[in-house]
Structure formats: structure tokens, C-alpha cells
Amino acid sequence: MKRLALIIIGGITLVAVIAVARTLMLLPARAPIAMQEISAPPEVRDRYAQNLAAAIRFKTISTGDGAAPDHAAFAGFHAFLQDTYPAAHVAMNREVVADYSLIYRWPGSDATKKPIAFTAHMDVVPVPAFGLADWQHDPFAGIIDDDGVIWGRGAMDDKGMLIALMETIEKLAQQGFVPNRDVYLMFGHDEEIGGGGASAMAALLKARGIQFSWLIDEGSAMVEGAVPGVESTVALISLGEKGSVTLKLSAEDEGGHSSAPKRFTAASLAARAGYLVTDNPYPLVLDENLERFLMSVAPEMDFGARVAIANLWATRPLLRDQLAENPTLAAFMHTTTAFTMMQSGTKSNILPQYGEAIVNYRIHPRDTVAGVIERARRIIDDPRVVVEQLGGRDATSMSSTDSEGYTMIAGTIKDVFGPIPTAPTLTVQATDGRFYYGVSDDVYRFTPFVFRPGDLKRIHGTNEAMHRDDLVRQVAFFEALISKAASVQ
Ligand SMILES: [Zn+2]
Asked: Which domains does the chain show, CATH number per domain?
């Protein structure tokens, strides 16, 4: 008995010592790390702003209703790029693919080195008529306000990145920089409606036997205020993106008069199926990427949070559930299940003959489309309900954090913005990046502009805008990255 007590006390003491020791590794609490300011002459940052504003005025809209791209808008945008970036167009070869997408190749001096690539898209989502009144400025007027904010559809998604890339190449080309490896730019024209352009460009590059060492697309950025208590800007480099699938759960019934119902109707069978899959969500996993994120921001957090993060071996389930209370963080931890549509019935006193529930899943890289369908059938476990797949694609694989690309990107972030926390992440939306896995060892998603709370809903939403300082940051980052990556010996 005494021996058992000693063992228990010893065990508790050991656990306490480990917990304190691990926490001390994150001590002392550090002050927030200020991001290094990047300055640019007023005429330069104004030129960046004016060029983004001009780009916004081309209505390169992907409507999503099956209409062909607006030929005049895309032709105008192509000509605008040629007129605005003459040195870049002398330095690079330009090729039009799938009618409107653009591949630029900047030939390097050493053909034996693997090329690198940057991709962005020219198209934007429409502005719905019902939201128009809430815009502070006309979304296609390309307004720059007195604070240096460029307003309009595409400012963030994704013309800001595209303009920053062109400004960078223009600047480097003017300086006489010659890369030692091929540098490619791929600009898709229909990212918002399936990415046929990116798919065609990837196929063409693959047919030519081109293999990139690494590639960067949109899909992640630097965030501010994402974690309560953390004031530093955190740079998140995305390693992959989620897949998606929509399931139609339908039921049929003979129907009849509502005065003599059976226990179930086609409506309730479909509704029950939708409810069951939603009520049995995929398990949450606090994986190594989220763990690296937490470790990188922990030094700024209060003592309690540091104890929890330093001792994930004991606190993981608790911390996971706490983080999952935020739906955005929960989305990083599992395949999400959203019961989004429901259709059944024609009249209040008629038993419906048909009912359907529509459920949209966003698939984590650890799951698959096939697995989602199999799991839904198992959970519903009802032969009266038909489970049908509508479209769908698996998640991408996750790119390496030990590669040349990741090392270069993370290193350049530190060089340009200072020692701010940097961590890998996962993109929960779709990007053109997913098409390039066949031609690139590693595909990353990172744009160096700063996302502040509330910014996420501007993308595809109302009042999309970018500050000219964010353009200056992007150009500084891409310039440093290309200079380093394309001139290493
Ligand atoms: Zn985009």
C-alpha cells in the first residue's frame, strides 16, 4: 500500500516536473515581434497602386453561368500587361494557352537547374446586385482613396498578387538581373470556375517535360489577430489544399394523403440522412502543422496557454476541443460536413413522393472522396436512402517542409519582414495550385500581404480592397525570393 502511494506521488511529481520544464522552454514570454517596415519612394508605391487600380477596371469576371469569357476584357487586360511592363515583356517569352491564360518564361542562364514558378489568376468573381449598395466604392472603378487603399473586385483575389509579380519582374529586368534558372509565371483565366486554364497550362508544361523545383500560388498569407493574445503578424505557408465532394441523399415514397401518414415520409427520410451525417462529424485532429503554428505563437501567450501548448502530450484533447470552438480553426482539423440544401414536398396535405438533402464536404488530406461516401452510407445505414456523388475531388498531397522551396520561402520571410513567427498550414478553399502537382515537386500557397480580422470575408464578398503598403511588401518579398532562388550557386 505504502509502495503504491509512493509510486503515485512519484508519478505526479514527475509529471509536474516535466510540465514545468517544458513550459520553461517557452519562457520568458516575449514581446510581440514588430514586422520590419518596408519603405518605397512615394512615386513607386503610387505607381503600384495605380497599376492595381487599372487592373481592377478590366471586368475579367468568371460568371459561373457557363457563359464564355469576356473576350474584350481579357484582351484588354493582356494588352495592359504588355504596355505597363515593357522590360518584363522583353525579358520573358509569353504564350497564350486555352485562349486566355498566360505562360511567361524568363530564360535562365543554366539549363541544368530546375525551374521555379509563380502562379496567379486574372479572373474575379462577380459582384452580386444585392450586395452592390454596401460597397464603399464602385467595385470595378479602381478607386484609390486618400489612405492609399485600392478598392475593387480582385484587389486581394488575385490581381494584387499578379500585379506584384509583374512589378517585381519589371524591376529586376530593368536592373539587368538575369536568373540562373528558368523562372515561370502562369496566369489562369478561370480559377474561380474550375481552373480549365491552369489545367491546360499544367498539361502543356508536363508534355514538354518541365519539372519545377517548387511553385507558389495564392491561398495563404500573413495573418494578424488570428489568435487571441498574439499580436505578432504570423506568416502561414500552405502546403496543400482540401478536396471537396457534394452528396445527394434522396428518398422516394409512394405518397398519399397527410391524414393517414406512415412513420416516415420521403421528406423526413432525406432530412434524417442529412442530419445523421452532420451529427456524426469527422474526428478533429490537432496535427503537426497546427502544432507547429501553436509552438510558433506560444511564446507571446499568457502563462496558462504556454503550459497547455508546451504539454500537448497531456493537453492535446482539451486544446483541440477549445480551438475547434472557432469554426475556421476546426476546418483545419478535419473534413467538414455542411448540410446546405433540402428539397421535398409540394403541398402541406400531400405526403411527398420524393425528398433530397444536399451535403457539402471539404475533405482533409487524410481523407478521400471514396471514404466520405462509404462513411456516409455507413452512418445513414438505411436502404431507403440513395447516396449519390455530385462531382468531387480528393485533397492534394501535402508539400514538404524540408524542401528547397519551403526553406527559401521561410528564409525570405525572415529576411524581408524580420523574425516573425512562420508556420505551415493547409488551404481550406480551392486554388489553381492543385493542377500543378504533376509538374512540381512542391506546391506552396503564400502571398505576403497582411490579413487583418474581417479581411477574409472581403474575398468573394463586399469591399474587397488592398493597401498600397501590401503591394510594396509583396514586391519586396518576390524580389528577394527570386533574386535569392535564381542566383544561388
Ligand atoms: Zn483566387
From this structure: 42-238+396-485 (3.40.630.10), 241-393 (3.30.70.360)
